[in-house]
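Just curious. Protein, please.
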Amino acid sequence: MAIGDIIVGIDIGTSRVSTVVGEVNNFNQIEVICNTISKCSGMKKSKIFNEEEIAAAISKTIKDAEEQANLKINSAYTMIPGKYITIVQNSIVKEVKDKFAGISAKDVGSAILQVKDIEIPENQTLIDIVPDRFVLDNGNIVDDPIGNLSSSFTLKAQIILADKEYVKQISNIFRKAGIEVDGIVPITLAERNVVLDNNELYDNIMLLDIGAGNTEIGVFEGNTFTYTNTIPLRRRQYHK
């Protein structure tokens, strides 16, 4: 992200669609410019039942956001419920191209491309790679390995897979709304950096997001994203 970049996020919930527009400030943080909401019942228990209704709600929130922020929105990130997500833990050892010059950005980029090289089931698709930790050849763990003198390093990461049919539905909805998908992020993974402070980011944490129709669960062991799921709300039937 660069200073001044505009980031747009769309959350499709059980009772409403929300669009948030943010701008990257001088501290490399996303500053919220506006937040627009439209009622929508096109999704029930994390299943999409009415693509047209959701697309119409997205279009309305986008139009309202464009008017409030005085800018044109062409694309956005969106979130995906945990029930459609599979997390695969993977690691690779990467030899550094020039160990005397230190680990380069190219070395790290190449490692990220290699770590995602896994067998993906036919009904799933890769939506994200979450680097967990970098381990240097001396055993030191670093958040950013670039510049460190090391002949090799180990990258441990989570490969995020999503249900292919759900991703296809989301893509269709965005197309109908006239915007592109920048990326699809698991709900609790997106919320982690917003909800937790710097100290909690390294703790073992379970996040619960209780919505109108579902509860989202995310489990983190330090930096490691280990589990996510969706529990639908069960309404009791009362009989006279």
